[in-house]
């Protein structure tokens, strides 16, 4: 059994930084989008890689957005090789009028067969990326701790068959 603990950015740094600085404020007058909040939830920890990632994003459009706003949720499969990163979900939010917007992404869990066996257990990241008009303007990262007292790697990687 694999256990996954997802920590928010705030959990990781709350003792070192004043959290009020992470509230979205329009200090950059060239910015068209501000992030009000992002919350990532998983199902029960007992299942680890079996759970979907439910991500709620609330953002502010400071002006009408005439081009598509794209949101990507990525699981980092290896700290040393980006080829093992998995795009869990991509959402084309489309254009947006001025004001606050909220949406939910329900992303599938990462495919463990695409993660190197020696990197299944340990610390990794979930990354939320946002693009507007084809240019990435935001990257938010959350540390994820994957651990197990006695994981059966062979069972985890065994092919799954469904009867038809």
**Terminus-to-terminus distance:** 27 Å
Helical proportion? under 10%
Task: Indicate how many domains the architecture comprises.
Answer: 1
CATH class: Mainly Beta
Overall pLDDT confidence = 75
Radius of gyration: 18 Å
- Uncertain ranges: 1-27
List the strand order in the largest sheet: 1-8-7-4-5
In the CATH hierarchy, the architecture is Sandwich
Largest sheet: 5 strands, antiparallel
GO biological process, one term: DNA replication-dependent chromatin assembly
GO molecular function: histone binding
Family: Belongs to the ASF1 family.
Main location: nucleus
Explain this structure to me?
The protein is mainly beta and 164 residues long. It has one domain (3-147): Sandwich (Immunoglobulin-like), CATH 2.60.40. It is 6% helix and 48% strand. It contains two helices and eight strands, in the order βαβββββββα. The chain has helices at 9-13, 153-157, and strands at 3-6, 33-42, 53-61, 65-75, 86-96, 99-107, 122-132, 135-147. The strands form two sheets. It has a five-stranded antiparallel β-sheet with strand order 1-8-7-4-5, with no helix packed on it. It has a three-stranded antiparallel β-sheet with strand order 2-3-6, with no helix packed on it. The longest helix has 5 residues, at 9-13. It is elongated. The two termini are 27 Å apart. The model is unreliable at 1-27 (pLDDT under 50).
């Amino acid at each position: 059994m694999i256990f996954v603990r997802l920590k928010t950015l705030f959990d990781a740094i709350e003792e070192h930084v004043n959290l009020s600085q992470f509230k979205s404020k329009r200090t950059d007058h060239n910015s068209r989008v501000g992030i009000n909040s992002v919350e990532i939830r998983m199902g029960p920890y007992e299942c680890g890689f079996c759970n979907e990632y439910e991500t709620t994003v609330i953002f502010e459009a400071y002006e009408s957005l005439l081009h598509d706003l794209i949101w990507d949720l990525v699981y980092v499969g290896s700290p040393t090789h980006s080829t093992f990163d998995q795009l869990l979900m991509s959402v084309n939010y489309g254009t947006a009028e001025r004001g606050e917007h909220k949406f939910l992404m329900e992303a599938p869990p990462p495919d463990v067969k695409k993660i190197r066996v020696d990197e299944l257990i340990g610390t990794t990241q979930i990354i939320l990326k946002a693009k507007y008009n084809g240019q990435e303007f935001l990257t938010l990262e959350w540390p994820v701790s994957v651990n197990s007292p006695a994981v059966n790697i062979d069972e985890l990687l065994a092919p799954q068959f469904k009867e038809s």
